[in-house]
Amino acid sequence: MKTQEILKKVQNGELTIEEAELFFRRQPFEEMGYAKLDTHRKLRSGFAEVIFCSGKADAHLLSIFGKLYEEDGEVMGTRATRHQYELVKAVYPQVEYDEISRILKIEKTGKKRIGKIAVCSAGTADIPVAEEAAQTAEYFGSHVERLYDVGVAGIHRILSQLEVIQSANCVIAVAGMEGALASVIGGLVDKPVIGVPTSVGYGASLGGISALLTMINSCANGISVVNIDNGYGAGYTATQINRLGVQE
């Protein structure tokens, strides 16, 4: 339960002060032996803990997924495999899985999505990372506009979407190869741009390092850069910015 829920239950006489005190005395994480679930993260940061599924043992993933779901009524995992989806689905049939972004989630229905984040991908090969960013932002309550395959090889494509990117509170630019999309967008908008270099490209792209260096060395101002292929990190940071934009 959230802090406000507990306080309201005390106010309404549904919980005693002693019962509420037991909740607040709980340590801010749940010890599972192999993991320490940060159950108070949402209270501190506004974002509940998310599971990085890659490499997790089946039993560990299933247990962590269940605990987080019980705690908050929804849960999300990134970099999940089809096998992990089938494993979780056997216990939680309502779970959803997206093959492209590799996101595994149970989400509350009727969630309000606020503001606007524009997620742009240079090419279709960059869409898996872009979708991880977009779906992360949506899970955390942001409204997302997707602009895919708008890279600099045909710059008229992104120029045709100026109204969308200029009206967003934040823009995520996902690009591999030379990674120039972030610089182009940075010169067109007055809002923060988050560059996401991807590992898409031929040998000299060095698995995304070329795009990473291009984005870090951008002449355009207002560009921050996350790690290679880190769509989740971009979606999270964009949501923080978007929330501030809505409050203004």
Automatic annotation (TrEMBL):
SUPFAM superfamilies: N5-CAIR mutase (phosphoribosylaminoimidazole carboxylase, PurE). Residues 115-246 form the PurE domain. One of its GO terms (biological process) is 'de novo' IMP biosynthetic process. GO terms for molecular function: hydrolase activity. Gene3D superfamilies: 3.40.50.1970. This is Nickel pincer cofactor biosynthesis protein LarB. It comes from Acetobacterium wieringae. The gene is larB.
